[in-house]
TrEMBL record:
EC annotation from Swiss-Prot or TrEMBL: 3.2.1.8
Pathway(s) of this molecule: Glycan degradation; xylan degradation
Name of the protein: Beta-xylanase
Record-annotated GH10 domain positions: 25-336
Signal peptide: 1-20
A single GO cellular-component term on record: extracellular region
Pfam family, one: Glyco_hydro_10
Transmembrane segments: none
Keywords: Carbohydrate metabolism, Glycosidase, Hydrolase, Polysaccharide degradation, Secreted, Signal, Xylan degradation
One GO MF term: endo-1,4-beta-xylanase activity
Organism: Apodospora peruviana
Main localization category: secreted
Length: 379
């Protein structure tokens, strides 16, 4: 019994699947990070913050709203950074990466930007906005979602105020200004419904990226948001096919806003098993796509998920429920990351020493858990 007790303690110390953490294993498996969005209303929730700041859990954070145009320049030429800074400061303190989000988007856009402007005027408006906002966060952002959601589902360019004034040049212009303002940030194009190969929107996005790069702008990455629905989520193969296509035009890919919502609530145990499977397709696809650098969930707890507000009657889309219990999807993801790390599916991205330690941990853990299972089976 003493031996059993010691094994239990050892297993718990090393981290059983139930306590094991996402970013630690994502890095050991060769990803740059496993991240989460964080929104300002959650900042004074201590239970929430303990998890959000846990660098073994999340290696990257994304301000859910704080850096959007409506928050940073709600009236022309008057910039405010309070909401964005509150979240960027967490990353400064913890050393987490910051995925900055987003500079040019048609939504949460202040009314004054939506007036009708000449091409020159809009060009100046965009430049001023990016120079100020990306300038303010210069050096802090691992990546910037420079342009968000510029393409419609049918493959046409979205007729937003920027497009109406400048045509597709607004995208080229935005990426050029962002590159001048914060040269070390990875510059991303970010959108939804560009996960399942290969719809009209994916094809149009691919063409748009080529056009913009041919016009002299740098685009480093494509962010696939990855909002999807339990039981209707793309398969790993569909996801990988898209990434193979996008890999031809950019150096990096990432899932930037993952949540997988139930269409009927409350979710049953079987629904949550299906949700776990759906999450695994995404994580598995990222692990198997050489250019996929990381995965961000669009918040980690149902308590702060945007889904119920957007899709009435749907939800429970996150890895933790609203009472902070981890769902089956959480432990499934950790197990998958652990096996990828142990199998050396791709080379670990953390420093060689850290990677070796993480792998040694992984092996030790598998051994301990296996031994423990054997002992328990005999007892
Ligand atoms: C997207 O492009 C691929 C490859 O060129 C093509 O096979 C497919 O039919 C296209 N899809 C649509 C919806 O246009």
């Amino acid at each position: 019994m003493i031996r059993l007790f010691q094994l239990l303690v050892l297993a718990i110390t090393l981290g059983t699947p139930a306590t094991c953490q996402l970013d630690k294993w994502a890095k050991a498996a060769g990803l740059k990070y496993f991240g989460t969005a964080v929104d300002n209303p959650a900042l004074n929730n201590q239970g929430y913050m303990k998890i959000a700041r846990d660098t073994d859990e999340f290696g990257s954070i994304t301000p859910a709203n704080g850096q959007k145009w409506s928050n940073t320049e709600s009236s022309q030429g008057r910039f405010s950074y309070g909401s964005g800074d509150a979240i960027a400061n967490i990353a400064k303190q913890t050393g987490q990466l910051l995925r900055c989000h987003t500079l040019v988007w048609y939504n949460q856009l202040p009314g004054w930007v939506s007036s009708s402007y000449s091409k020159d005027q809009m060009q100046r408006i965009i430049a001023t906005h990016i120079q100020n906002v990306a300038g303010h966060y210069k050096g802090q952002c691992y990546a910037w979602d420079v342009v968000n959601e510029a393409v419609e589902d049918d493959g046409k360019m979205r007729q937003n105020p920027m497009y109406k004034a400048m045509g597709i040049d607004y995208i080229t212009h935005s990426f050029k200004i962002a590159a001048q303002t914060d040269p070390t940030a990875k510059l991303y194009y970010n959108d939804f419904n560009i996960e399942r190969c290969c719809n009209a929107k994916i094809n149009a996005t691919y063409d748009m990226i080529k056009t913009v790069k041919a016009a002299g702008a740098r685009i480093d990455g494509i962010g696939m948001q990855g909002h999807s629905r339990v039981g209707k989520s793309p398969s790993k193969k569909e996801l990988k096919d898209t990434m193979a296509k996008f890999s031809q035009v950019v150096d990096e890919l990432a899932y930037t806003e993952i949540d997988i919502r139930h269409l009927k609530l409350p979710a049953s145990a079987a629904d949550n098993q299906q949700q776990a499977k759906d999450y695994l397709e995404v994580v598995g696809a990222c692990l198997e796509a050489p250019k996929c650098v990381g995965i961000t969930v669009w918040d980690f707890t149902d308590q702060y998920s945007w889904i119920p507000g957007q899709y009435s009657g749907e939800g429970e889309a996150c890895l933790w429920d609203r009472s902070y219990n981890k769902k089956p999807a959480y432990s499934s993801i950790v197990s998958l990351l652990q096996s990828a790390a142990t199998a050396g599916l791709r080379s670990a991205t953390s420093s060689p020493t850290a990677a070796v330690t993480a792998r040694a941990d992984a092996t030790a853990e598998v051994v301990v858990v296996t031994t423990l299972a054997t002992v328990l089976a005999r007892a």
